[in-house]
Protein: Maleylacetate reductase
Amino acid sequence: MSLEFVHDALPGRVVFARGARRRLVDEVTRLGLRRLMVITSERQLDLARALTDGLQDRLAVSFTRVLPHVPDSVAREARTLAEEHSVDGLLSVGGGSITGTAKIVALTSGLPIVSVPTTYAGSELTPVWGMTTGGRKETGRSPMVLPKVVIYDPQLVEGLPRKVATSSALNAMAHCIEALWMSTATPVTTLMALEGVRVLRQGLDELVTDLTPAAFENLVLGAYLAGASFAVAGSGLHHKICHALGGAFDLPHAETHAVVLPHALDFNIVAMRADSATRLTSALGGTDAVESLRDLYRRVGAPVSLAGLGLTAEQLRVAIQVVIEKLPIENPRPVDADAVRAILTAAYRPKP
Ligand code: NAD
Structure:
């Protein structure tokens, strides 16, 4: 088969270094921003204050009432505040919920975003926004929400609690693995995704065996490669399942991705391009991709069941129905109602 692809490269500047947070003032100056709105959470407020120490004359207002999945009431409040204070830029400091709030303000205002991520969610690299209205999460793509600059400082993730870090890194792993099997994957997204899998696996192992600064560098680099590959290749079955679970039952985002990933991979591995499957297996450091991933989960103590995340049997039934209603779903292996039922049932209470 001859090689053919369309790679829609996305713009954006990335500054990556231990201590990169100290370059924030230069980056804000480079963009000519003079009235920033800082978007963060109460929990990250001290960090945001420390980061913006040299920017006092350019801070117009702070917004800290961030909630997961950006409820529309939070979006309204943040947008109004930005308008009232005539801000000319948004500085987000935190995980995906915080980046998501900045994106929703940028979507309607066109304000540029400077993003300082503190988890491995990868949202800062994608043009995807999300907002929840009446319990339903709506998502979309817009170039307006893509940050102008992302500052990756591996020192900023050192304080993430181990459990949060593990699930968040597996959320990034899910971006990489799904990017590999999408029909929109390109040789460039595949390269990024495979290297993402490799450094995430290495960083996760180092989290439990050899906690040096290199572990955090690997994990943050993995998050970057995950976001960058997923941003171009798009999302399919795995993300659709997690989205349905998160939206309907408010399950924790990163943990849900972590639990579903081995089952989505188990289902799709036979239908992946042979070269991608072989390279994935090698990036996971074994001879069988699914088993290598499961081994990694055992080594790092990752969450493995939806029941363990609090999903009830009745909710499982509803979740299966919600995903079935989304069919047809773009996927390398055709997905029918039985397949959805099998994947979700296996993820609910996996066999020991
Ligand atoms: P999150 O932002 O809610 O953070 C998870 C937890 O980590 C929170 O309790 C937070 O307080 C804590 N935390 C964050 N940084 C910390 C730090 N440095 N030290 C200690 N604790 C810290 O969750 P998330 O998993 O980062 O992001 C999930 C959200 O991002 C979801 O809404 C998801 O839909 C969205 N997302 C969007 C995209 C996209 O492309 N649009 C991609 C990935 C995720």
